[in-house]
Each structure stands twice: as C-alpha cells, then as structure tokens.
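Centrosomal protein of 76 kDa, Salmo trutta. Tokens?
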Amino acid sequence: MSLPPEKASELKQIIHNHLIKMNIHGKIRDVLAETVREDLDPGRSSLSEEDILRALQRRGIVDDVMKDLHFSKLIKEPCGCIDRKALLGHLTNVDPARRYLYLQVLGGKAFLEHLQEPEPLPGQVCSTFTLYLHFRNQRFRSKPVPCACEPDLQEGFLLEIHREGLGDGSKMADATTMLSICDPVHLVLIKRDTSSETTLVSSYFLDWRTVLSSPSGKTSIAVELHGVGSECKVAAGVLNMSLELYPPPSEILSPDIITTQRSLERQKTAEKERLFLVYAKQWWREFLEIRQENQSKLVKIFAQDENGVNRPVCSYVRVLRAGRLLESPRQAARFVSLLGLEKAPVVGGGGGGKQEQWCSLLAFLCRNKGDCEDHATLLCSLLLGFGLDAYVCVGTKPKGLAHTWVMTRGTDSTITFWESLTAHRYLHQAVDPDAPPLAPQPRPSYPYRTVGCVFNHKAFLANCQPSDAVELCAFDFHNQSQWKVMSEEAVGSVCSPGSTTSLPPLPPLCGPSLEPSAASNQLELEMRYLVVEHRKDLGLATVWDDHLSYVLSSALAAYELERCTGTSCGNEEFQDAVRRAVPDGHTFKGFPIHFLHRNARRAFATCLRSPFCDEIVCCRGDRVRLAVRVRVFAYPESACAVWVMFACKYRSVL
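Tokens:
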C-alpha cells in the first residue's frame, strides 16, 4: 500500500496521537520487564523482535492499539494492511543485559520571552525550538516545535549508561557503578527563526543520578534553564522531565549518599582548580618579570564559556577523531570553515567592545556557527585527531583586532598556519631582523600581525621574544628564552579528560543530515523559478538550455575540490565541453558563487548584487539561452557548501 506524502504524514500523526493517548510506552515497558523476568532463558542474552511482538499480542496490547484507530478519511484499505511490527521498531535494539536511562521531556513552561507569541496557524512558517542531548558518546535531538511560552516539547530519549571499554560494556551497571559515573547529560536548546538563523537559548548540564534514590527507578524533575553569555544568570525557561532506569536497579541508594558523592566531586574539582589558579598566578608574575614588553602581549590563560564559567583555554581543545566523516586534515579545515561566523551579541552595543564567549563544542556544533575562537579550537582538535602537532594561536590581525588561528609544526620544523574561517593555509618563514638591508627576505602572505601565546590540550606557551610580530617570531618551543612553557602536569590536572567534573564531555561528530542530490535538485528548481519571474518583470522570455546546465556540473565539482585540497583540476575538460556546447558566432558568460546556506531567495538577491551575474540573468540578445546549476556538498553537522553557477549563451550581433 502506498500513500502520497501528505497522507502518510497525516497517518503517522494519527498513530502517534493515539499511542500517546493510551500510554503505549508505559504498557510496552511493563510487558517488556515482565517478559524479561519470566520468559528469558538463562542461556540467552537478549530477546528478539519476534519474542517481544508475541508477548504484546499475548497480552492484547497490539489488538488494543489497532481496534480504535480510524483511517477512513485517509485510506480505503482495511487497518490490517498496516505493518504492526512498525509499532515496536524502536525497541529492537534494546539489550536486556544493559542498563538504560529513559529521559522523557514532558513539555516546557515559563519561556517568558515568547509570552506574546501568537499561536501559529496550520502550515505557517514560525520560529522553532529544538532540544539537543549528549550523553557518553551518544547524541540525540528532538523534533522542532513552535516557540511559545509553554513549548510542546514532548520527546523520549533512550540513553545507554554503560558504554565503557571492551569487557565492561557487557556488564549490567549496578547502583554503585552508576553513582561513580559523573558524566552529565548535556542539554542544548536552539531557536531557529523563520529565516533559518539559529540562536543558542540555553546550555545545561543535567546530573541524572537523582533517579538512583527513587524506589521505582523513576523520578520527575523540573529543570530551570538559564540564558547564555551576558544573560547566563537570567532564567530562560523550565523543562519538565522524567528519568527512568531500565531495568530498575535492585539496590536503591539513599539520597544522602548521592548528595555526599556530589559534594566530594565538587570539592575535588574545586581543589584542583584552586591549585591551578595559584600556579597560573605565579607563572604569570614570572612571565611579566622576563621583559617589560610582555605586559602588552595577548596572553590568554582563561576564557569564559557560554554559561559564564571561567575555564583554562587548554580545556577547549581535545583530540577529536571524526571516524569516516572526514578523510583528511584539509577536508577537516574545509568543514570547519563552512560553520558560520557570529560574534557573541552585546546588549546595548557595549561601547563597541567585543563580548567574550568561547562555546562548548556541543553548543557550537548545534548552533552551526560561532566566533573565531570556536572555529580554531574545533580545527585544532580535529588536526590533533589526524596526528598533527597542532596548536591554537592567540594574537591580532591588522588594525590590532584580536584573532585566533591554528598552527601545525612539521617534523622538519616547518610551520604552517591554518585560517579556520576560510580553510586557507600559509607557510611561515621568519624574517631575520639582523640581516643586511639589501638581503632578500621572505614576504609574509598570512593576515596575522602579532602572536601572544599558543596552546593545545596538553601545552600552554607564552611568547617572550623581544617582538611578538609574527614575521619575526621563531616557533622553537624547546627554546625557553623564546617561549615560557606552563607545566604540562599543571595543565593536565584541570584540562585532561576526566580530570574534573566541571569539564564538558567531548561529543562525537554527527554525519550529514541532508541528501545532497535531492537538496541540489530542489534548490536548482527554486533558482530557475526566481530567474523566470525576475525576467518576466523585465518583459523578457526565458529559454533554458538543459545540456549547458549539466555541463556546468564539472566546474562546480572542481571548485569544491579546490577548496578542500588546494589543487585545481578538471578545468581543461570543462572548457572543452563549453566550446562544444556553444555554437560558432555565439558568446558564453558564466558566473559561479558560493554560499553556506540553502535559502534560494537570499542567494538570488545576493547574486543580483553582482553586476556580472545581473548581466547574465537579465541578458538580452538573439537566441539567448540560459543555464543554472546548483551543487550542494554535504558535510558533518548539517554543514553544507552550496555552489551556484549562472550562465548564458547568445548570438553576437555587431
């Protein structure tokens, strides 16, 4: 049985509403727990999908679900045509030998910023909330819901608790083991407006271990979310949640034990941070005593995150491996450059000053944009994952603007700068200030003026050379007269993974969320429509040349390959194909342009601001044929590179 997309969506919504109404999740959990307790043989480690389905049918759950569903408005086939196994699809990966935390979001309230938000009409485009979760290398996100004072966030997330190394992962985590797991559930709430611009609403770390003291293994909580940046002390809203352990633990812990454990963890973290602060102050005094000029150098030891918490800058860098999602360091640089640039907003303008906000990695990835510091720390983490000796550089660009970028050191002492906002790479060759005036000197091509310090996940070094000008700096980190090194042991005490409970856990990268071919086709159709309408307003007809449009594909693929690898290829084939597609006596014009979004109207408006593109789109002449080609290249974390090329050919008339 096949249905049109709109009917399929309506059918899914009817089933979803009916399942919620009859509390199907609770019934399935009860049956599953009973089946595990009574029917599971000692020699078997898991239940199959058929075992679960038989248990539900035996207890009449499936029949109860089906008998009250009414599809008469949607389909004429009987209800029996629907695959009943689909109702249980989300349970097939549940292993009874593992412990799970079932986190349910039961709605939000007190989001007062949206108190006057009107009720969205059916089909109306409106601003939405999306909730993202990260727990022990697992990432989830909710469906987007309309922004409101009481947003209808109704989602359930099944989190596997024990995901340790080989051997431990097969064990059932008991109450004592779970108490020692201090990893929080990181919640990030993102608002997306009608123009697809994202805003970080809140970033919250949930300690889930209160459920260990619940007699039933289930508890309900209200989580108060706070704003970010300058609003980190202001409440943003409240999320109602329920936490449930499956299967319920046999041992129930006292609330006092959980409180004591948290207190001990906080004390241990506070003591480590206090000792590091004492060491950092002493190290800073020694650095200032080396030479007078050091007082003006940009040396940054601490930075504030989105929640206003001061953290050592080294804690923002980790070794991050992207698995199969990214194949090379240069592709990683390309991916990072596709994430948008946005400085933290300052209420009232702040006198033109820059609001500092270094984001945790999950908040940066979920928002899909951030400041140059966020880009640099992510790129450095990825390059470390690829085995390079990478560091984040803190310094200035021309006109004294503060900036961060990435540096790698080769085994042959080659120094390469990586601009995380553009994926450009620059080779550093130091200028010799003592060379004779007429001696040839390298001309720097990089846009950096000074460098005050460099750091990664294990090292922090401050520049104590006479000049902090980049072209004069030597990057020999073993020379203590040029770089003052912070103790690796001191850095590791507060920045290495697991050293303190205040460090946000490192999330894995998620794969692309869109299908490139479908996205390319859709955007190209929208572009064609906009061109036709624009020319119609000018009193011009539009005739498309589909073959010429297809020929443009190779050029767009070559442009993206060049951005990834720095190597140009395929230009000869493209030029030959264009010559064959354009008859003698005709003129060809083409205009490529690159975007980081898939909003057709915004892209088209940007294109028309270029006189070259406007000349093509508004082309007049004899036998005018137009072509447009769109290629969307998908990258991890919803990042995409969008290439659009407009072209026309016409007969030259003198």
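Confidence is low (pLDDT under 50) at residues 71-92.
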